[in-house]
Design goal:
Blueprint: H1 4-9, H2 13-19, H3 24-33, H4 38-45, E1 51-57, H5 62-75, E2 81-87, H6 92-96, E3 108-112, E4 118-123, H7 127-134, H8 141-151, H9 155-175
Parallel strand pairs: 1-2
Antiparallel strand pairs: 1-3, 3-4
Helix pairs in contact: 3-5, 5-9
């Protein structure tokens, strides 16, 4: 479980970008390029409860670089959503708590109440990205990095992330007492 200290030591998206050394221009472009339709904007403005979104990730991670801007764009459209990011390397002990199949995955996205109680979580990449990454032969690490950068340049993959995050947000809002 996340502690208040974890939330308090996490940084805003702007601070994350300011401190980032890799993928900065890609993240800025993904944030700017993601357009939400009227229905998606209405859904975000209809959120009734404060929802904290804590990302455990790093600017070096292509999955983080692909998904954190989507979350930042969403939170910019709703005063009820708060986004913070914790560096997964500097917070390895916390990150260890969120292993999948015995491995640390990045990013880990926690949807939490304003008291830092976890409601639900999302890990690493959208389903459509898993499908594309897992198709074909086992590429080298370098080939995989190139493929992920290309993959997250696809607007459909960003929209897949957006859709999955929207479902998590609505679920969180209902768990917190949406009427």
């Amino acid at each position: 479980m996340c502690e208040t200290a974890d939330w308090d030591s996490a940084v805003t998206y702007d601070a994350f970008l300011k401190n980032a050394r890799e993928n900065v221009e890609l993240m800025k472009a993904r944030y700017s390029d993601l357009m939400l339709n009227e229905s998606e904007q209405d859904t975000l403005s209809s959120i009734q409860n404060e929802i904290r979104i804590l990302v455990i990730g790093t600017d070096r991670c292509d999955d983080s670089a692909g998904n954190v801007p989507v979350l930042a764009r969403m939170t910019s459209l709703s005063p009820k959503l708060k986004l913070r990011i914790l560096d997964s390397d500097k917070n390895a002990k916390l990150h260890e708590q969120y292993k999948v199949n015995g491995k640390r995955k990045t990013p880990v996205v926690l949807f939490m109440s304003n008291e830092n109680h976890e409601i639900c979580r999302w890990v690493e990449r959208p389903n459509a990205a898993y499908k594309q990454v897992n198709q074909g032969s086992k590429p080298s690490l370098e080939d995989r990095k190139v493929a992920l950068k290309k993959l997250y340049s696809d607007p459909e993959i960003l929209r897949q992330s957006l859709g999955e995050f929207m479902k998590m947000l609505m679920r969180s809002d209902y768990v917190l007492g949406r009427r």
